[in-house]
Design a protein that fits this description.
CATH class: Alpha Beta
Distance between the termini: 42 Å
Number of helices: 3
CATH superfamily: START domain
Structural class: alpha+beta
Strand content: 35-45%
Shape: globular
Strand order of the largest sheet: 1-7-6-5-4-3-2
Helix content: 25-40%
């Protein structure tokens, strides 16, 4: 079983970072690895059970992910992969934000677990780590542009 954990301090308040990251359907609008993201069947992007569909840039196929939980009170979301063009199974990820009491920043953490063939695990782990890290970097870039 593969496991990934990534954390970061972001140069945004928890409310600013959450407003950016909670939109489950907006992934292709800001993450450089993905494009053409949308929520299937026109459902709201914060509706539990909604499915986001997006393509991976540079011919990497497409993904479908289902929102399992979303809490504005806890600044947390959980989702699972329904389809990926890789031999991954049982992928579930969760992201949570926490306030930092000093300054206008917040702490984010993102983790995932899934089954992947042993010979593909190292590459899969690096791929997911890079994706999570880039999400947090996108929050910083978005917030820095607004200053």
């Amino acid at each position: 079983m593969a496991r990934v954990y990534v954390s970061a301090v972001m140069n945004a308040t928890i409310d600013q970072a959450w407003a950016f990251l909670r939109d489950f359907g907006a992934l292709g609008n800001y993450h450089p690895y993905f494009e053409k993201s949308y929520i299937e069947d026109g459902k709201p992007s914060d509706q539990i059970g909604c499915v986001r569909h997006f393509t991976v840039r540079d011919g990497g196929g497409y993904l479908r992910e289902q929102l399992l939980a979303l809490s504005d009170d806890e600044h947390r979301c959980r989702y699972k992969i329904l389809h990926i063009d890789a031999d991954w199974k049982n992928y579930v990820a969760e992201m949570r934000l926490l306030p930092i009491t000093e300054g206008d920043r917040c702490f984010g953490e993102w983790w995932a677990e899934w089954d992947v063939p042993a010979d593909q695990e190292a590459e899969a782990v690096e791929r997911v780590k890079g994706t999570f890290r880039t999400f947090f970097e996108c929050v910083n870039a978005h917030h820095d542009r607004r200053k």
